[in-house]
Every structure is written in structure tokens, then in C-alpha cells.
Amino acid sequence: MLSTSKSTHDFDPLDELLKPPADETEEDRLIRLAQEAEARRISLQIDESIKAERQQQKKKSVVRLLLLGQSESGKSTTLRHFQRLYTPSAFREERILWRSVIQLNIVRSVRTILDALSNVRLPPVDSGGEDSDDGSPHIPHDLDLLKMRLTPLRHIEALLIAKLIPPSEDEAASFVATSSVSLFQSHRSRSTERSSRNQEVFVRPGATWKGALAKTSHSDARPTSLEDTGITTKDEAQEVLRSCTNDIISLWNDKFVREVLRRRKIRLEELPGFFLNDLGRVTALDFIPSDDDVLRARLKTVGVSEYRCEMEAAAGREQGTEWRIVDVGGSRPVLATWVPFFDDVDAIIFLAPISGFDQVLAEDRSVNRLEDSVLLWKAVCSNRLLANVDLVLFLNKCDILDAKLTSGIRLSRYVRSYGDRPNDLETASKYFRSKFSAIHREYSPLPRKFYGFCTSVTDTTTTAGILASVRDMVVRRHLKQSKLL
Length: 485
Description:
The protein is of the alpha/beta class. It has a six-stranded mixed sheet, with helices on both faces. The termini are far apart. Strand 6 (347-353), helix 17 (369-382) and strand 7 form a beta-alpha-beta unit. It has a domain at 332-482: Rossmann fold, CATH 3.40.50. It has helices at residues 2-10, 13-18, 26-59, 75-86, 88-93, 98-117, 141-149, 152-164, 170-182, 190-198, 208-214, 236-243, 245-253, 255-263, 279-282, 291-296, 369-382, 398-406, 411-414, 425-443, 460-481, and strands spanning 61-69, 202-203, 300-301, 305-313, 320-327, 347-353, 390-396, 451-454. Helix 8 (152-164) runs antiparallel to helix 9 (170-182) and helix 8 (152-164) packs antiparallel against helix 12.
């Protein structure tokens, strides 16, 4: 019994299976041995490859970059610059998807104008649109007819919102319901007008909205016509915008409209997503957004958005550097979400839109935009979790600042400490750089170098050079801290 049990336990079915055939010839044996040797060689090669890949992953340098700043400071545009510079193929492939965003930007600009006109009363017959006795302007009859001809844009706005935002999201349903009722109405109260104008379409982080649009469209690097993009379905929004182009141009160029916008201090040219001066081009049926168009397009994001890309080899090392760029949003209710992302971050790009010295926050009209940026900058500089983190300051929207100062708006009227300095871009930018540098020096827990740039992130050439400098500085410091350089 014991011998039987022992023989049972010693039996190995694999050994039996791998035994050479009983009738194997010498020639067959040599072939079998050669095949087994080749199999072992391939197996060892695979094992070595896996081992090398694991070691390479351990050595790979990962740089974590955080984008901070108030809402509409230019964070998303800066992120798009990184994508354009370091993952250009993917950026070009997604350009067609931004056409829907640009279409919505145009509709929203028209809506802003019509909202501004909504409380202007119709003139008496044959009044010619003169001011009323109380000094408020009357809307000319031809503009009222123009508004009626632009009514199809109401449907286009709802259509574009449905394309960009999944219908399951409550915000989308709420916004569409509100916009379909209020858009382009002739008479509303001032409070309703303000709340309507302040509503904005936003998307959640990630590629959900891109995925939905990509089902019906894609683009090549330099398409010459709509057929080259692979689009097989008609773009209803583009067709309607094309049919309304002349009316939109007439509305935008109307002297009466410009005067109403001036009185209400609405400067569409300074807002992100402004394309009214490019209508002939961007409403063409074969329009494909350029890199600049994508950078100028406005699409508000909420929540945390992380973008990963592997850049070119840095500091002479063979392997590339993987960047993880995080945009955590800038509206006041989500500022508390910044802190968890301070851990293990290599550098922060803080964007302060200095053109907002005469503006207030959209979410809190009692707070000046420049003052808000200063307070946020103080908070970031003084945070002890960031004591050893490089802070890079972008004094952004210098192009808009230049336009404001050139138009005669006095900086000293809003910033008293500016005094009687010359009211020009060079002097103003030096002043702001000095002020933000002083805050950095005073509030930083530990001494560190100040990196400050005057930027216009919609300017591709200048911003590309600045981001290259920032990239090199951040990577070099990261490698030193990681003892890889």
C-alpha cells in the first residue's frame, strides 16, 4: 500500500507530457532539442525586456505642474499651449472638435448684445431712434427686425449645449431649459438680464465632450475642405451661422449697438471666445479651426482636470520627462480644492490677469478682479506646504491691458498706489511685476527665486518661448532634487 501511495504522489503529468516520443528518431531528437533551446532563448529575451522596461519606468522622471488662478485667468489656454507644443499631432487631430465651441462662442456674443438691447425701449413712430426725454436711448426699428431674423440662433444654442454636455447632467438640462425660454426675448427686467448673461456653459474635466463630438468628426493636419476632415454629416449649426452672418455683422457694427455697449461697459473684444471680427472666416462652411482659434476659444471647465504628456528628452538624459499638468479650477467656491494638490508638486504657474484692474468677479461683483488675484497670490506664497516649490507668475492679458491704457483708461484711478506714473504698458507691467515680487519675497516661508513673466497666453509665439523657459527651469530643478542631475 505504501509503495502504491508513493508512486501516486510522485507522478507528474507534465513530465509524462513532455517526455520524448518512444519512437523518436535521432533526427527528431535533434530537431526537438533545437526547438526547446530556441523557446528558452525567446523566453529569456522576453524576461530581460520586461525587466529593462520596469527599470526604465523607475528611472522615468515625472514632473507635476499645477495651474492656479482665478476664473478666466488663462489656465485652460495655458494648458492648451502645452498640448500644442508637446503633443502636436493629438492637438491637430482635435482641432475640428473646437468648431462647436467657437460656434457657441459666437452665439453667446450675439446673446450678450441682444441682452444689452433688451431694456432699450422702442421709439415712437418716425422718432429715428433718438434718446427719450429721460436720456435713455430707444432701439431703432431696423434693429428690432434684425433681432427677429436672428431668432434661429436660439435653437442653435440649445443644440450646441446638448452636443457639449451629456444630457444626464443636471446643469445642462437646467441651462437649456432657461436659455430656450429667455434667449432673444425683447423685454426682460434688468435682474433677469444680468442673471441670464452671467450663465455660462461649462464642461466637466476629461474628454467626455470631445468623445461625443469625435463620433462624427475628425481632422487632418492641414485640411483644405470639409470633405478632407472625414465629416459625413451636415453641420446644422455652421449652416445657420453662415446664413445669419450678414445680420450678425450688421448688429455688431451698428453705431447704436456700440453706444449701448459702451454705456453698459460691455467690452466684448476683451472677453475670451470673441470671434465677431472674424465672422466671414469662421462661419464659412469649410471652416477648420486653426491653432490660434483653439487657443482663443472659450470653454469653461469645472472641477479638476489632469493632462499627461511625455516631452522630449531633458537635460541630456536618454529618457523623456513625463509631465502631469493639473488645472484645479479657479471659481471661488472651489478654491478649497487646491490644497490637496499641493502635495508632491514640483512647480506652480500662477496666472494673474492684470487687465482686470477695472473689473469685478463674475461670481462676486463686490470683489475687484485685481484685488482677488493679489489675495490669492499672497495665500499661495505664504502656504508652508509650498515652501520648497517653485512659483512661476504669469502677469497675464497684457494685450488687453495695453488696449485699455491706450484707450485712455487711467490705471491710477483704480490703483491709487500707481500714482502719477506714465499710463502705458511698459510702466504698468513693471509696476505690477515689482508689487507681486515684493509679496513673493515678504510672504514666502523660505527664500526662493522669483520667476515672473508678462504674458498674453493667446499669443502663440511669445507664450511658446516663455513656456520653453519654464519647462527647462522646472525640469532642471526637478532632476536636481531627485538626484538625477
